[in-house]
Amino acid sequence: MIKSKALLFSLVLPLLLVACKKQQQAQQQGGPPAAAVTVAQPTQKEVMEWDEYPGRLDAVEMVEVRARVNGYLQSINFKDGAEVKKGDLLFVIDPRPYQAELDRAKAELVQAETKLELAVNDAARAEKLLKAKAIAEEEADSRNKAKREAEAMIQSAKAMVEVANLNLDYTKVLAPISGRVGRKLITEGNLVNGNQGQSTLLTTIVSLDPIYAYFEPDERAILRYRQLAREGKGESMGSGKVPCELELASETGFPHKGVLDFLDNQIDPGTGTLRIRGVFPNPAPDHVLQPGFFARVRVPSTGKYKAVLIPDLAVGTDQGRKFVYVLNDKEQLDQRPVKLGPMIDGLRLVREGVQANDWIVVNGFMSIRPGMPIKAEKQAPTNSVAVASPQ
Questions:
Q1: Residues whose CB is less than 8 angstroms from the CB of residue 385 and which lie 6 or more positions away in sequence, other chains included
Q2: 100: helix, strand or coil
Q3: Does 387 score more than 70 pLDDT?
Q4: Deepest in the core among 32, 182, 360, 364, taking most CB within 10 A?
């Protein structure tokens, strides 16, 4: 037992001697070595903060293409999902019955025109004979009435020709708007119905450029936006001048720029939100924005103001409290609590706690604590584009 203790003492003794020597050297040097850190002053930028909302895209125009006359579907002249222009031929309904009806109506018009010529001649002769008192007034009146009846028949025949022409035109189903056509809902050879209220749905078309994005801010946000407009820090939401930006699920940086063009006339009592609409250009050939897509939409939540920005790595957390290390007049570090705002393209907005002339630690953060000696290297502020969004 004694030998074991002696052996343990012989092993520990050299370690104790080394530790004492290091402590003595540290005391001779005046304390622990200074920690190397990098400090920088905050960046000052004019910024405008934004509020973000989930939104959904919708077409400006959506048309159900339906048959307007009865008949057998003769041909289909588009591919499912293709882009079409207004006036493009989509479907052809068998035109032969309607061509025959048009020919009959034209023949009846010619017949009516012939009867009118005869009635005009009879009325003219009756007028001469009446002046010569060669016929009775009743006969002259009868011939004048026959003339007016023939004129009315002309109008009726012309209307029948026009209706027959329209029905013949309706056998060619044209695209009423430009956009993307859906799938064909009926195939060639089927009988289609063109009667009002029972017309056969053939396909649908949605417009692509521009496109709407609908989203729903809550009541508190709406009141804040209106307050900004009253203070002259922003445009009225109903003016069509408020900017809004959009990004799809696969995008970053809100690359699509638009304006708000509509807000609903009442708050939804079930959700406490107000539906708002932005309109965005969606140019060819890509037409990246598609009706039905979900997106992120943002609108300005503040006017422009001068803000203090720091790197997000300069911010520490102590039991939920945010702080930064600031270099004081004695070249020592003070721990200062801060109130933070959103990220602005890589920099964190500081609402309270940091001034523009402060020097804050931006590198070496994890190896320091308040009051310890440091060796600070100063660097220039970090530049960044000042566009803010909530994080």
A1: 344, 345
A2: helix
A3: no
A4: 360
pLDDT, tens digit, 9 for 90 and up, residues 177-198:
999 999 999 999 999 998 888 8
Specify whether 123 is located in the same domain as 222: no
Distance of CA 259 to the CA centre of its chain: 9
Per-residue pLDDT, averaged over 104-114, amounts to 87
Q: What is the mean pLDDT of residues 363-367?
A: 75
Whether the CB-CB separation of 258 and 245 falls below 8 Å is answered with yes
Count the Cβ atoms, other than its own, within 10 Å of residue 203: 22
Going by their DSSP bridges, the two strands 374-379 and 35-40 should be labelled as parallel
Show which of 300, 332, 355 is a domain's final residue. Answer: 300
- Is there a contact between 299 and 239 (Cβ–Cβ < 8 Å)? no
Residue 98: Cβ within 10 Å count? 21
94 vs 2, higher pLDDT:
94
Taking a C-beta distance cutoff of 8 angstroms, is the pair 170, 68 a contact? yes
Q: Say how far apart CA 226 and CA 383 lie, in whole Å.
A: 32
Does residue 201 have a pLDDT over 80?
yes
8 A C-beta contact, residue 301 and residue 51 = yes
Neighbouring residues of 205: CB distance < 8 A, sequence distance ≥ 6: 62, 63, 65, 84, 175, 176, 177, 179, 180, 181, 182
Tell me how many domains the chain contains: 4
Measured between alpha carbons, how far is 350 from 354 in angstroms, rounded to an integer?
7
Q: Is residue 2 part of a domain?
A: no
- Residue of 116, 115, 139, 117 whose CA lies nearest to 128: 139
- Tell me which residue of 336, 344, 359, 338 sits closest to 305, measured CA to CA: 344
- Per-residue confidence band for 104, with pLDDT thresholds at 50, 70 and 90: very high
What's the whole-number mean pLDDT along residues 45-73? 91
What pLDDT is recorded for position 14?
54
Q: What is the pLDDT of residues 342-355, one digit of tens each?
A: 887 778 888 888 88
Domain range for residue 155? 96-170
- CA 207 to chain CA centroid, nearest Å: 14
Q: In the numeric block, which tokens belong to residue 18?
A: 């080394």
Flag whether 188 is in a domain. yes
Compute the distance between CA of residue 41 and CA of residue 3 in angstroms, rounded to an integer. 64
Q: Which residues contact 381 (CB under 8 A, 6 or more apart)?
A: 40, 41, 42, 43, 44
CATH number for position 242 = 2.40.30.170
